[in-house]
Amino acid sequence: MAEENQGFFKGLWGKLTGAEAAPDVAVEEPHKSMPQAEGEPVQAHELPVSQVAAEPQAKPSLFQRLKQGLARTHEGLVARIDTLLLGKKQIDADTLEELEEILITADIGVQTTVELIRTLEAKLGRNELQDGAALKKALQEEIGARLQRYSAPLDVTVAKPFVIMVIGVNGVGKTTTIGKLANRYVAEGKKVLLAAGDTFRAAAAEQLEEWGKRAGVDVIRHQAGADPSAVVFDGCKAAVARGCEVLIVDTAGRLHTKVNLMEEMKKIRRVMGREISGAPHETLLVLDAATGQNAMSQARLFKEAAEVSGVVLTKLDGTAKGGIVVAVSNEFQLPVRFIGIGEQAEDLRPFEPSQFVAALFD
Ligand SMILES: Nc1nc2c(ncn2[C@@H]2O[C@H](COP(=O)(O)OP(=O)(O)OP(=O)(O)O)[C@@H](O)[C@H]2O)c(=O)[nH]1
Protein backbone atom coordinates (compact mmCIF):
# COMPACT_ATOMS: atom_id res chain seq x y z
CA MET A 1 0.00 0.00 0.00
CA ALA A 2 1.41 3.39 -0.94
CA GLU A 3 2.55 5.48 1.99
CA GLU A 4 -0.05 8.22 1.50
CA ASN A 5 -2.86 5.69 1.05
CA GLN A 6 -1.90 4.04 4.29
CA GLY A 7 -2.06 7.39 6.01
CA PHE A 8 -5.44 8.15 4.53
CA PHE A 9 -6.83 4.77 5.39
CA LYS A 10 -5.53 4.98 8.93
CA GLY A 11 -7.38 8.26 9.27
CA LEU A 12 -10.61 6.72 8.02
CA TRP A 13 -10.20 3.69 10.20
CA GLY A 14 -9.63 5.94 13.21
CA LYS A 15 -12.77 7.89 12.33
CA LEU A 16 -14.79 4.71 12.17
CA THR A 17 -13.44 2.85 15.13
CA GLY A 18 -11.91 5.46 17.36
CA ALA A 19 -8.71 3.40 17.10
CA GLU A 20 -5.33 5.08 17.16
CA ALA A 21 -3.98 3.27 14.13
CA ALA A 22 -5.36 1.12 11.37
CA PRO A 23 -4.44 -2.49 10.88
CA ASP A 24 -2.40 -2.90 7.71
CA VAL A 25 -4.99 -5.01 5.94
CA ALA A 26 -8.28 -3.11 5.48
CA VAL A 27 -10.96 -4.27 7.91
CA GLU A 28 -10.04 -7.95 7.88
CA GLU A 29 -10.92 -9.55 11.19
CA PRO A 30 -9.80 -12.85 12.62
CA HIS A 31 -12.44 -15.34 11.67
CA LYS A 32 -14.72 -16.56 14.35
CA SER A 33 -15.97 -20.07 14.65
CA MET A 34 -19.58 -20.99 13.94
CA PRO A 35 -21.74 -21.46 17.02
CA GLN A 36 -23.20 -24.89 17.57
CA ALA A 37 -26.70 -25.29 16.16
CA GLU A 38 -29.36 -25.34 18.83
CA GLY A 39 -32.22 -27.76 18.74
CA GLU A 40 -30.19 -30.69 17.34
CA PRO A 41 -31.62 -33.79 18.95
CA VAL A 42 -29.40 -35.14 21.72
CA GLN A 43 -29.78 -38.80 22.63
CA ALA A 44 -30.45 -39.53 26.31
CA HIS A 45 -27.43 -41.87 26.46
CA GLU A 46 -25.19 -38.97 25.38
CA LEU A 47 -26.15 -36.89 28.39
CA PRO A 48 -24.36 -37.02 31.75
CA VAL A 49 -26.31 -39.11 34.28
CA SER A 50 -27.07 -36.03 36.37
CA GLN A 51 -28.85 -34.40 33.42
CA VAL A 52 -30.81 -37.49 32.46
CA ALA A 53 -32.14 -37.76 35.98
CA ALA A 54 -32.81 -34.04 36.40
CA GLU A 55 -36.28 -32.56 36.10
CA PRO A 56 -36.77 -30.95 32.69
CA GLN A 57 -36.07 -27.21 33.00
CA ALA A 58 -38.88 -24.92 31.86
CA LYS A 59 -37.71 -23.06 28.73
CA PRO A 60 -37.60 -19.33 29.42
CA SER A 61 -40.28 -17.36 27.58
CA LEU A 62 -39.26 -15.11 24.71
CA PHE A 63 -39.72 -12.10 26.97
CA GLN A 64 -37.55 -13.65 29.69
CA ARG A 65 -34.83 -14.31 27.13
CA LEU A 66 -35.02 -10.74 25.96
CA LYS A 67 -34.71 -9.60 29.57
CA GLN A 68 -31.71 -11.87 30.09
CA GLY A 69 -30.17 -10.52 26.88
CA LEU A 70 -30.59 -6.96 28.09
CA ALA A 71 -29.44 -7.68 31.65
CA ARG A 72 -26.13 -5.86 31.30
CA THR A 73 -27.71 -2.76 29.82
CA HIS A 74 -30.30 -2.91 32.60
CA GLU A 75 -27.47 -2.92 35.16
CA GLY A 76 -25.64 -0.05 33.43
CA LEU A 77 -28.70 2.10 32.91
CA VAL A 78 -31.79 1.25 34.92
CA ALA A 79 -30.08 -0.05 38.06
CA ARG A 80 -28.08 3.19 38.20
CA ILE A 81 -31.22 5.24 37.66
CA ASP A 82 -32.87 3.30 40.50
CA THR A 83 -29.94 4.06 42.80
CA LEU A 84 -30.20 7.74 41.92
CA LEU A 85 -33.95 7.98 42.30
CA LEU A 86 -34.77 5.40 44.93
CA GLY A 87 -37.00 6.93 47.53
CA LYS A 88 -36.39 10.48 46.22
CA LYS A 89 -39.24 12.59 47.46
CA GLN A 90 -38.29 15.60 45.41
CA ILE A 91 -36.73 16.07 42.02
CA ASP A 92 -34.44 19.04 41.36
CA ALA A 93 -32.00 20.26 38.72
CA ASP A 94 -29.14 18.28 40.32
CA THR A 95 -31.09 15.05 39.97
CA LEU A 96 -31.63 15.73 36.28
CA GLU A 97 -27.95 16.54 35.84
CA GLU A 98 -26.96 13.20 37.36
CA LEU A 99 -29.56 11.46 35.23
CA GLU A 100 -28.07 13.13 32.15
CA GLU A 101 -24.67 11.67 32.97
CA ILE A 102 -26.10 8.16 33.40
CA LEU A 103 -27.89 8.36 30.04
CA ILE A 104 -24.80 9.54 28.21
CA THR A 105 -22.56 6.87 29.72
CA ALA A 106 -25.14 4.20 28.77
CA ASP A 107 -24.73 5.26 25.10
CA ILE A 108 -28.17 6.79 24.69
CA GLY A 109 -26.30 9.45 22.70
CA VAL A 110 -25.74 13.12 23.47
CA GLN A 111 -28.46 14.47 21.17
CA THR A 112 -31.10 12.05 22.46
CA THR A 113 -30.05 12.60 26.08
CA VAL A 114 -30.35 16.37 25.72
CA GLU A 115 -33.82 15.95 24.18
CA LEU A 116 -34.90 13.63 26.99
CA ILE A 117 -33.59 15.89 29.75
CA ARG A 118 -35.27 18.96 28.20
CA THR A 119 -38.58 17.14 28.06
CA LEU A 120 -38.21 16.04 31.68
CA GLU A 121 -37.25 19.57 32.75
CA ALA A 122 -40.42 20.88 31.12
CA LYS A 123 -42.47 18.29 32.97
CA LEU A 124 -40.72 19.23 36.20
CA GLY A 125 -41.51 22.90 35.52
CA ARG A 126 -45.18 21.97 35.16
CA ASN A 127 -45.03 20.10 38.49
CA GLU A 128 -45.73 16.81 36.74
CA LEU A 129 -42.83 14.98 38.38
CA GLN A 130 -43.52 14.72 42.09
CA ASP A 131 -40.97 12.05 43.01
CA GLY A 132 -38.33 9.62 41.77
CA ALA A 133 -40.87 7.03 40.69
CA ALA A 134 -42.72 9.57 38.54
CA LEU A 135 -39.45 10.67 36.94
CA LYS A 136 -38.45 7.10 36.10
CA LYS A 137 -41.89 6.42 34.61
CA ALA A 138 -41.70 9.59 32.51
CA LEU A 139 -38.22 8.67 31.28
CA GLN A 140 -39.36 5.19 30.30
CA GLU A 141 -42.31 6.65 28.38
CA GLU A 142 -40.16 9.22 26.60
CA ILE A 143 -37.60 6.59 25.53
CA GLY A 144 -40.43 4.33 24.36
CA ALA A 145 -42.00 7.18 22.37
CA ARG A 146 -38.70 7.93 20.64
CA LEU A 147 -38.20 4.28 19.69
CA GLN A 148 -41.78 4.08 18.47
CA ARG A 149 -41.39 7.16 16.27
CA TYR A 150 -39.26 5.44 13.62
CA SER A 151 -40.25 1.87 14.34
CA ALA A 152 -41.46 -0.28 11.46
CA PRO A 153 -41.22 -4.04 11.16
CA LEU A 154 -39.65 -5.37 7.99
CA ASP A 155 -42.41 -6.60 5.70
CA VAL A 156 -40.92 -8.90 3.06
CA THR A 157 -44.26 -9.68 1.44
CA VAL A 158 -44.51 -6.38 -0.45
CA ALA A 159 -42.36 -7.63 -3.35
CA LYS A 160 -41.41 -10.99 -4.86
CA PRO A 161 -38.60 -11.66 -4.64
CA PHE A 162 -38.01 -9.21 -1.81
CA VAL A 163 -34.33 -8.27 -1.94
CA ILE A 164 -32.45 -7.49 1.26
CA MET A 165 -28.98 -6.04 0.83
CA VAL A 166 -26.98 -6.47 4.02
CA ILE A 167 -24.17 -4.03 4.73
CA GLY A 168 -21.78 -3.28 7.58
CA VAL A 169 -18.10 -3.61 8.47
CA ASN A 170 -16.51 -7.01 9.12
CA GLY A 171 -17.08 -8.71 12.42
CA VAL A 172 -20.29 -6.93 13.40
CA GLY A 173 -22.32 -10.10 12.87
CA LYS A 174 -23.43 -9.64 9.25
CA THR A 175 -23.09 -13.26 8.16
CA THR A 176 -24.65 -14.53 11.36
CA THR A 177 -27.55 -12.14 10.91
CA ILE A 178 -28.10 -13.31 7.32
CA GLY A 179 -28.11 -16.92 8.54
CA LYS A 180 -30.61 -16.11 11.26
CA LEU A 181 -32.84 -14.22 8.82
CA ALA A 182 -32.73 -17.14 6.39
CA ASN A 183 -33.82 -19.44 9.23
CA ARG A 184 -36.64 -17.12 10.18
CA TYR A 185 -38.08 -16.81 6.67
CA VAL A 186 -37.71 -20.53 5.97
CA ALA A 187 -39.59 -21.24 9.20
CA GLU A 188 -42.33 -18.96 7.89
CA GLY A 189 -42.56 -21.23 4.83
CA LYS A 190 -40.82 -18.85 2.45
CA LYS A 191 -38.41 -19.81 -0.30
CA VAL A 192 -35.11 -18.06 0.40
CA LEU A 193 -31.89 -17.62 -1.56
CA LEU A 194 -28.59 -16.17 -0.35
CA ALA A 195 -25.97 -14.40 -2.48
CA ALA A 196 -22.38 -14.21 -1.26
CA GLY A 197 -21.56 -10.70 -2.43
CA ASP A 198 -18.59 -10.51 -0.04
CA THR A 199 -16.08 -11.86 -2.54
CA PHE A 200 -13.23 -10.15 -0.74
CA ARG A 201 -12.71 -13.04 1.66
CA ALA A 202 -13.24 -16.70 0.71
CA ALA A 203 -14.11 -17.43 4.34
CA ALA A 204 -17.12 -15.11 4.16
CA ALA A 205 -18.77 -17.21 1.42
CA GLU A 206 -17.89 -20.42 3.25
CA GLN A 207 -19.47 -19.18 6.45
CA LEU A 208 -22.55 -18.15 4.51
CA GLU A 209 -22.74 -21.63 2.97
CA GLU A 210 -22.61 -23.16 6.45
CA TRP A 211 -25.59 -21.08 7.49
CA GLY A 212 -27.31 -21.85 4.19
CA LYS A 213 -26.91 -25.58 4.79
CA ARG A 214 -28.28 -25.25 8.26
CA ALA A 215 -31.32 -23.29 7.08
CA GLY A 216 -31.73 -25.51 4.01
CA VAL A 217 -31.28 -22.69 1.49
CA ASP A 218 -29.01 -22.35 -1.54
CA VAL A 219 -26.16 -19.89 -1.71
CA ILE A 220 -25.03 -18.27 -4.97
CA ARG A 221 -21.28 -17.71 -4.81
CA HIS A 222 -18.33 -17.06 -7.09
CA GLN A 223 -14.57 -17.40 -6.64
CA ALA A 224 -12.88 -15.16 -4.09
CA GLY A 225 -11.96 -11.85 -5.68
CA ALA A 226 -14.80 -11.95 -8.22
CA ASP A 227 -16.85 -8.84 -8.95
CA PRO A 228 -19.58 -8.62 -6.26
CA SER A 229 -21.97 -7.22 -8.86
CA ALA A 230 -21.62 -10.41 -10.90
CA VAL A 231 -22.65 -12.48 -7.88
CA VAL A 232 -25.57 -10.16 -7.30
CA PHE A 233 -26.59 -10.46 -10.96
CA ASP A 234 -26.58 -14.27 -10.75
CA GLY A 235 -28.37 -14.14 -7.39
CA CYS A 236 -31.16 -12.00 -8.82
CA LYS A 237 -31.55 -14.19 -11.92
CA ALA A 238 -31.66 -17.34 -9.80
CA ALA A 239 -34.10 -15.86 -7.26
CA VAL A 240 -36.53 -14.96 -10.08
CA ALA A 241 -36.07 -18.25 -11.95
CA ARG A 242 -36.63 -20.30 -8.80
CA GLY A 243 -39.62 -18.31 -7.62
CA CYS A 244 -37.97 -17.24 -4.37
CA GLU A 245 -39.77 -14.94 -1.97
CA VAL A 246 -36.66 -13.55 -0.32
CA LEU A 247 -33.15 -12.93 -1.65
CA ILE A 248 -30.57 -11.88 0.93
CA VAL A 249 -27.34 -10.41 -0.38
CA ASP A 250 -24.18 -10.25 1.71
CA THR A 251 -21.69 -7.49 0.88
CA ALA A 252 -18.08 -6.84 1.87
CA GLY A 253 -17.59 -4.38 4.68
CA ARG A 254 -14.62 -2.73 3.04
CA LEU A 255 -14.34 0.95 3.61
CA HIS A 256 -11.22 2.13 1.83
CA THR A 257 -12.80 5.47 1.28
CA LYS A 258 -16.33 6.75 1.41
CA VAL A 259 -16.18 7.36 -2.34
CA ASN A 260 -15.18 3.73 -3.03
CA LEU A 261 -17.88 2.47 -0.76
CA MET A 262 -20.48 4.64 -2.45
CA GLU A 263 -19.36 3.54 -5.90
CA GLU A 264 -19.46 -0.14 -4.96
CA MET A 265 -22.87 0.20 -3.33
CA LYS A 266 -24.23 2.13 -6.29
CA LYS A 267 -23.01 -0.50 -8.73
CA ILE A 268 -24.59 -3.34 -6.75
CA ARG A 269 -27.85 -1.42 -6.42
CA ARG A 270 -27.88 -0.66 -10.15
CA VAL A 271 -27.49 -4.34 -11.02
CA MET A 272 -30.20 -5.38 -8.56
CA GLY A 273 -32.59 -2.68 -9.73
CA ARG A 274 -32.16 -3.70 -13.35
CA GLU A 275 -32.91 -7.34 -12.62
CA ILE A 276 -35.68 -6.97 -10.04
CA SER A 277 -37.98 -3.98 -9.98
CA GLY A 278 -37.49 -1.80 -6.89
CA ALA A 279 -34.54 -3.85 -5.56
CA PRO A 280 -32.97 -3.62 -3.09
CA HIS A 281 -36.24 -3.32 -1.20
CA GLU A 282 -34.31 -3.12 2.04
CA THR A 283 -30.76 -1.96 2.73
CA LEU A 284 -30.07 -3.38 6.14
CA LEU A 285 -27.15 -1.99 8.11
CA VAL A 286 -25.73 -4.34 10.73
CA LEU A 287 -24.08 -2.70 13.73
CA ASP A 288 -22.42 -4.27 16.75
CA ALA A 289 -24.09 -2.70 19.79
CA ALA A 290 -21.06 -3.47 21.95
CA THR A 291 -18.98 -0.98 19.97
CA GLY A 292 -21.09 1.91 21.27
CA GLN A 293 -20.08 5.19 19.71
CA ASN A 294 -18.17 3.44 16.89
CA ALA A 295 -21.48 1.96 15.82
CA MET A 296 -22.79 5.54 15.64
CA SER A 297 -19.89 6.57 13.37
CA GLN A 298 -20.53 3.58 11.13
CA ALA A 299 -24.24 4.41 10.96
CA ARG A 300 -23.39 7.97 9.93
CA LEU A 301 -20.98 6.90 7.20
CA PHE A 302 -23.14 4.13 5.76
CA LYS A 303 -26.25 6.29 5.86
CA GLU A 304 -24.48 8.87 3.73
CA ALA A 305 -22.98 6.27 1.38
CA ALA A 306 -25.55 3.54 1.04
CA GLU A 307 -29.18 4.64 1.45
CA VAL A 308 -29.72 2.58 4.59
CA SER A 309 -33.40 1.78 5.19
CA GLY A 310 -33.17 -0.29 8.36
CA VAL A 311 -30.78 -1.34 11.10
CA VAL A 312 -29.92 -4.52 12.97
CA LEU A 313 -28.15 -4.15 16.30
CA THR A 314 -26.29 -7.31 17.22
CA LYS A 315 -24.61 -8.56 20.40
CA LEU A 316 -26.88 -6.71 22.78
CA ASP A 317 -26.52 -9.69 25.10
CA GLY A 318 -22.85 -9.05 25.75
CA THR A 319 -22.91 -5.34 26.43
CA ALA A 320 -24.03 -2.61 28.79
CA LYS A 321 -24.18 -0.25 25.79
CA GLY A 322 -27.72 -1.20 24.77
CA GLY A 323 -28.73 2.47 24.93
CA ILE A 324 -27.23 2.63 21.44
CA VAL A 325 -30.53 1.23 20.12
CA VAL A 326 -32.23 4.46 21.17
CA ALA A 327 -29.40 6.65 19.87
CA VAL A 328 -29.18 5.03 16.42
CA SER A 329 -32.90 5.06 15.83
CA ASN A 330 -33.52 8.57 17.13
CA GLU A 331 -30.46 10.34 15.77
CA PHE A 332 -30.48 8.78 12.31
CA GLN A 333 -34.26 8.46 12.07
CA LEU A 334 -33.97 4.85 11.08
CA PRO A 335 -36.12 1.88 12.03
CA VAL A 336 -34.37 -0.81 14.06
CA ARG A 337 -35.67 -3.92 12.29
CA PHE A 338 -34.03 -6.63 14.40
CA ILE A 339 -31.89 -7.01 17.49
CA GLY A 340 -29.40 -9.80 18.22
CA ILE A 341 -29.38 -11.14 21.75
CA GLY A 342 -27.28 -14.28 21.28
CA GLU A 343 -25.60 -16.55 18.77
CA GLN A 344 -28.44 -18.98 18.08
CA ALA A 345 -30.87 -18.66 15.19
CA GLU A 346 -33.79 -17.64 17.42
CA ASP A 347 -31.72 -14.93 19.07
CA LEU A 348 -32.39 -12.50 16.26
CA ARG A 349 -35.64 -10.78 17.21
CA PRO A 350 -37.89 -8.41 15.34
CA PHE A 351 -37.55 -5.17 17.24
CA GLU A 352 -40.64 -4.16 19.20
CA PRO A 353 -40.16 -0.86 21.07
CA SER A 354 -42.69 -1.44 23.86
CA GLN A 355 -41.39 -4.94 24.56
CA PHE A 356 -37.79 -3.70 24.47
CA VAL A 357 -38.46 -0.86 26.92
CA ALA A 358 -40.43 -3.16 29.21
CA ALA A 359 -37.65 -5.77 29.19
CA LEU A 360 -35.07 -3.11 29.89
CA PHE A 361 -36.89 -1.20 32.63
CA ASP A 362 -38.97 -3.77 34.49
N1 LIG B 1 -23.37 -12.90 21.63
C1 LIG B 1 -23.70 -12.62 20.36
N2 LIG B 1 -22.83 -12.91 19.38
C2 LIG B 1 -23.19 -12.61 18.11
C3 LIG B 1 -24.43 -11.99 17.79
N3 LIG B 1 -24.46 -11.81 16.45
C4 LIG B 1 -23.29 -12.29 15.96
N4 LIG B 1 -22.52 -12.78 16.95
C5 LIG B 1 -21.18 -13.36 16.85
O1 LIG B 1 -20.29 -12.36 16.34
C6 LIG B 1 -19.24 -12.97 15.62
C7 LIG B 1 -19.07 -12.26 14.28
O2 LIG B 1 -20.16 -12.55 13.48
P1 LIG B 1 -20.04 -12.71 11.91
O3 LIG B 1 -21.39 -13.02 11.42
O4 LIG B 1 -18.92 -13.58 11.55
O5 LIG B 1 -19.68 -11.22 11.52
P2 LIG B 1 -19.54 -10.58 10.09
O6 LIG B 1 -19.92 -9.17 10.24
O7 LIG B 1 -20.20 -11.36 9.04
O8 LIG B 1 -18.02 -10.64 9.93
P3 LIG B 1 -17.21 -11.44 8.90
O9 LIG B 1 -17.90 -12.75 8.66
O10 LIG B 1 -15.91 -11.57 9.60
O11 LIG B 1 -17.24 -10.54 7.73
C8 LIG B 1 -19.60 -14.44 15.53
O12 LIG B 1 -18.85 -15.14 16.50
C9 LIG B 1 -21.07 -14.48 15.88
O13 LIG B 1 -21.48 -15.70 16.44
C10 LIG B 1 -25.33 -11.68 18.87
O14 LIG B 1 -26.41 -11.11 18.71
N5 LIG B 1 -24.91 -12.01 20.14
Indicate the percent of residues in helices. Answer: 40-55%
Structural class by SSE content: alpha/beta
Let me know the number of strands.
8
| Cofactors, ions and other ligands in the entry | guanosine-5'-triphosphate
Q: How much β-strand is present in the residues?
A: 5-15%
| Terminal residue distance | 52 Å
Low-confidence stretches: 1-55
Give a brief description:
This protein has 362 residues and is of the alpha/beta class.
Summarize the SSE layout with pairings.
Layout: H1 3-17, H2 49-53, H3 62-69, H4 71-85, H5 93-105, H6 110-125, H7 132-149, E1 162-167, H8 174-187, E2 192-197, H9 202-215, E3 218-220, H10 228-241, E4 246-251, H11 258-275, E5 282-288, H12 293-306, E6 310-314, H13 324-332, E7 336-340, E8 348-350, H14 353-361
Parallel strand pairs: 1-4, 1-5, 2-3, 2-4, 5-6, 6-7
Antiparallel strand pairs: 7-8
Helix pairs in contact: 3-14, 4-5, 4-7, 5-6, 7-13, 7-14, 8-9, 10-11, 11-12, 12-13
The structure holds guanosine-5'-triphosphate.
Guanosine-5'-triphosphate binds at residues 29, 31-32, 35, 168, 170-176, 204, 207, 314-315, 317-318, 340-343, 347.
Overview of the structural elements:
GTP binds at residues 168-175, 250-254, 314-317. Its main location: membrane. Involved in targeting and insertion of nascent membrane proteins into the cytoplasmic membrane. Acts as a receptor for the complex formed by the signal recognition particle (SRP) and the ribosome-nascent chain (RNC). Belongs to the GTP-binding SRP family. FtsY subfamily. Keywords: Cell membrane, Cytoplasm, GTP-binding, Hydrolase, Membrane, Nucleotide-binding, Receptor. There is one protein chain. The chain is an alpha/beta fold. Helix 4 (71-85) packs antiparallel against helix 5 (93-105), helix 7 (132-149) crosses helix 13 and helix 10 (228-241) runs parallel beside helix 11 (258-275). 50% of the residues lie in helices and 11% in strands. The longest helix is centred in the middle third of the chain and has 18 residues, at 132-149. The termini are far apart. It is elongated, with a radius of gyration of 22 Å. It has helices spanning 3-17, 49-53, 62-69, 71-85, 93-105, 110-125, 132-149, 174-187, 202-215, 228-241, 258-275, 293-306, 324-332, 353-361, and strands at 162-167, 192-197, 218-220, 246-251, 282-288, 310-314, 336-340, 348-350. An eight-stranded mixed sheet has the order 3-2-4-1-5-6-7-8, with helices on both faces. It contains 14 helices and eight strands. Bound molecules: guanosine-5'-triphosphate. Residues 29, 31-32, 35, 168, 170-176, 204, 207, 314-315, 317-318, 340-343, 347 line the site of guanosine-5'-triphosphate (GTP).
